[in-house]
Design a protein that fits this description.
By secondary structure, the protein is an alpha/beta fold. Helices cover 40% and strands 12% of the residues. α2 packs antiparallel against α9.
């Protein structure tokens, strides 16, 4: 028996490496598996990063004070959040912030939607918590409901409860209505749940109508966000946690203590550049709106083409993901020896070069034939004066057609 923990490599990072390996063998790959923004950070912010490379000093563990004030002002103007700078934490990515929140609890039940982002469950497992799935289905648009929360709470083991929400969602690209959020907030209040609302894609809601969960449940919600999605700077590793007002001293001290003993602080030059990224709301809004228009057009193109092939799918509402359901092809896929989403993705990749992620990576049963498709395999079109899907997204168009051809041949 091994003395080491059994934690698999993140599926999103694994598919990125697999795609690169195939490309190094001169094989054509359609990179629909790895979700990375194709948009470049704005030139003025990249220049600010260059100008601040000499800042080699550590910053405050909680993050640069001036930056935290700028972020507070940004979110007040952008989506009406009233979070003081003292209740903002900055870290090298939102992933480590979510993990730090989980680690702050000695033991808890962690309620995680199925499907949900690949790292939530492994992080909860590493923190020693009890994981309880929140069941969803295609017909309710993969949404958490009051009923699914009630059902999950029947399986509780510990006193403390944590629920993770993510919307617009990874892997589904869908968001919540105000009414849906109100119903979830009512249950969160009833059961005294700490809610981690991962709103990293919030500013990329296609119609610009993102509703932060903290506005519905202000007493016990922590929002996580950062530069990786709306600003296209995933590798810069700058994440943000917006803590609820009145957060318990013990909780906040635990978060800061974990930070001080693990990541210490976010990179100081990146924090300096982030002041410019967050410092002009009007410039940020213009940049975001341009991205959303392009992502909406590309996402709807993929949605329309795939639904024409009898794939079950919901139209995207934010971010850059689709969650296709191949259940209409069960009989044909069985004849090909495909019974699981892993087998489905492996077969598609080896036979077509289309890289997708299986539903199992997102907490779905292995026999449920769902996959995640990320529609960002194109170069940043904002460097041009206009956007033309046929000209600017040739690999999206070809990859979707290759996938359709494979399905038609079953």
């Amino acid at each position: 028996m091994s003395i080491f923990r059994k934690i698999k490599e993140s599926q999103t990072l694994l598919i990125n490496n697999q795609s690169k390996n195939l490309e190094s063998q001169d094989k054509k790959v359609f990179k629909f598996g790895f979700g990375q923004s194709p948009f470049l950070p704005s030139e003025i912010v990249m220049e600010e990063l260059r100008l601040n490379v000499h800042h080699k000093e550590y910053s405050s563990v909680q993050g640069d004070s001036a930056l935290r004030q700028i972020i507070s002002d940004f979110h007040r103007q952008m989506n009406g959040l009233k979070i003081s700078k003292d209740n903002i934490m900055i870290a090298p990515g939102s992933k480590i912030l979510i993990y730090s929140i989980l680690l702050s609890y000695k033991e808890a039940d962690v309620f995680i939607p199925a499907p949900s982002w690949v790292s939530y469950a492994p992080q909860a497992e590493l923190a020693g918590h009890n994981i309880i799935p929140l069941e969803t289905n295609f017909n309710n648009r993969w949404r958490v409901t009051a009923e699914s929360i009630d059902n999950a709470f029947a399986k509780k083991r510990f006193k403390e409860s944590i629920m993770i929400l993510n919307y617009p969602g990874n892997p589904d690209g869908l968001t919540y209505t105000k009414q849906e959020l109100e119903q979830i907030a009512q249950k969160a209040r009833e059961y005294n749940i700490l809610v981690i609302s991962d709103e990293i894609y919030g500013l990329l809601t296609h119609n610009q109508e993102h509703y932060s969960f903290i506005n519905f449940y202000p007493e016990k919600t922590i929002i996580t966000t950062g530069l990786s999605k709306w600003f296209g700077a995933g590798g810069w590793r700058l994440g943000i946690a917006l803590l609820y007002e009145g957060i318990e001293d013990d909780f906040k001290n635990a978060l800061i203590g974990i930070a001080s003993e693990t990541y210490s602080c976010a990179a100081t030059p990146v924090q300096m550049a982030a002041k410019v990224a967050y410092g002009n709301v009007e410039v940020a809004k213009e940049y975001i709106i341009k991205q959303c228009k392009i992502l909406e057009e590309v996402g709807n193109y993929c949605y329309n083409k795939l639904t024409n092939s009898e794939i079950k799918l919901h139209a995207p509402e934010g971010g850059f993901y689709l969650f296709p359901d191949f259940s209409n092809y069960v009989a044909k896929l069985k004849k090909k020896g495909i019974f699981t989403s892993d087998e489905l993705c492996n077969s598609i990749l080896s036979e077509t070069g289309v890289a997708l992620l299986p539903g199992t990576a997102f907490g779905m049963p292995e026999n449920q034939l769902v996959v995640r498709l990320s529609y960002v395999d194109f170069e940043d079109p904002l460097q041009k004066n206009d956007f033309n899907l046929e000209r600017d997204c040739p690999k999206i168009i070809e990859g979707i057609q290759v996938l359709k051809t494979w399905l038609n041949a079953l």
